[in-house]
Every structure is written in structure tokens, then in C-alpha cells.
Amino acid sequence: MIPLSEMMSKVRGKCPLVHFITNYVTVNDCANMCICCGGSPVMTDAAKDVEPMVGLASALVLNIGTLNDRTIESMLIAGKEANRRDVPVILDPVGVGATPYRTETAERILKEVKVSVIKGNHGEISVLAGLGGEVRGVDSVSGAEDIAVAVKSLAQQTGTIVAATGPVDYVSDGKTTVVLKNGSKFMATVSGTGCMVSGVVGAYVGANGVSVDSVAAGISAVNIASEIAVSDGKVFGPGSFRTKLFDAVYNLKGEDADRLLRRE
After folding, report:
1. Quick check: helix, strand or coil at residue 177?
2. Total H helices, total E strands in the chain
3. pLDDT 10s digits, 54-73
4. Cα(first)–Cα(last) distance of the chain, in Å?
5. CATH homologous superfamily, domain 4-260
6. Beta bridge partners of 140
7. Phi–psi pair at 6, nearest 5 degrees
8. How far apart are the C-alpha atoms of 242 and 226, rounded to whole Å?
9. How far is 162 from 180, CA to CA, in rounded Å?
10. What SS3 state is found at 119?
């Protein structure tokens, strides 16, 4: 296993450009979180703009949180260009399973674009794996009894790295599955923390290459920071937590990340 501190150092040293086509609810927070972790975000979804922008990027993040036909086409154009240029593609299938439109869109992207990483919550990953799961709106209500089975199965079906985030996080390439146990309960109180994590995963993959380790590192960096954010007892609700989370990601030290990491 590559130390988290080493991968964090590469992100901050390379400042990888992460191209987001994401939802309008969390777009600003995704951009700022990417900056805080050491990346450089660009948020553009115009069909005429995405091809040249992907050519400059180290990773492409596709997030289906607020779908419309225009941005779906832009995602497909950008994804195919990323494939041509060997730029890793991260898919966040927000709310898949809640409506036919979301499910069909996620399936279409997976069919037409070679995705490198699928990162969703427990319910979304369980739905895509065909193992059940329930999604209400964009939130996971329940998932397969064994999320480890779901991530491994979906990774084998798609040939991607799959991550399921929740109270406990799982990352698998279909052969190796790691369990990540860092995080704060406040992560579930702020809209878009999962979207932010996907962007950080994009930065870590862009700087370190696509692997179980790099995906797990991006998730862990945010979750460890969430623990640090609440450690002084001065988080009183979602508002104060959100601000302190950005600060904690920005100020996270490599030695602290390695010391606090809980990975199995």
C-alpha cells in the first residue's frame, strides 16, 4: 500500500487539473474542495468547450445529480474525448435507481464511455450492481446487505474501480477490496459532501494514476479531515462543520493523515 501522505504530496505538487461536469447544487463547493486538496478545478459543460478542456485535464468527473439532455450529451462528448486522450473518467451516479431517467443515463454513460472509477453511495452502487438497494431523491435509504459484495461485483462487471461511500466506505477493483472507517457523522448533514469527495478522488487519480490505493486515498483524505474538523468541539451544526471541513482538508498534514488512517 502506498502511504496516504505520499499520494497527498503528489496531488499538491502536481496540482492536477480536474474537469467537472457536475450538478448546479454543489458546483461551487466541489470547486473549492478540489482547490483545498491541492487540485485545480474547471467547471464547464458546454458541448463546444468540453473537448478542448478535457485535453488539458488530468481527470474528468461526471456527476448526474441535476440531469438534463444538454449536459448528458456534453458528458458523452467529454467522456469519449477523455478515452481518446487516456484521461481517467470518474462517474458519480447520483440518485441512480430513483427514477428511470437517472438509471438510463448512468447505464448509457457506462456503455458509451470507458469509465475508470464509479463512486457512489451504498444504495447507488447496490442498484448498479443489480443487488437491490433503495434510493430516495439523491439519498441512499438502504442497500445490499453486504456492500463489499456489491462493490466487488460491480467492479468485475464493469472493469472499473468501484467505491461505495457511507458510514463505512468500500473500494474494490474486483480482486482486492479495502474497507475505510474514517469519517464524521456531520458528513451526512451537508448537501454535496459525496460530490466533493468525487472531485477529490479525481485529483488523487489525476496525480497518482487509477488504482484502489489512489481512490481510497482521496476518500480517506476528506474523511480524516472531517474528523479533525470536529475534534475541537466547536462544530455546532452543518454550517460550522462545512467551513471547518474546507479548512481541515486544506491544512491536512501528511503525517497526521497516515497516523489517523483506518483502513482494512
Report:
1. strand
2. 11, 10
3. 999 999 999 999 999 999 99
4. 11
5. Ribokinase (3.40.1190.20)
6. 135
7. -70, -45
8. 9
9. 13
10. strand
Whether 178 and 216 have beta carbons less than 8 Å apart is answered as yes
DSSP 175: S
Cell readout for 52 is 478542448
Spell out the domain ranges in the chain: 4-260
| Residue whose grid cell is 487539473 | 17
- Reported residue count of the chain is 264
Q: What is the pTM of this model?
A: 0.94
3-state SS assignment for residue 20: strand
What's the pLDDT band for 107 if we cut at 50, 70, 90?
Answer: very high
- The x, y and z cell numbers of residue 70, run together, are 444538454
Phi, psi angles (nearest 5°) of residue 40: -130, 110
Tell me how far apart the alpha carbons of residues 253 and 58 are, in angstroms, rounded to a whole number.
23
Residue 166: which residues within 8 A CB-CB, separation 6 or more?
A: 121, 122, 140, 143, 147
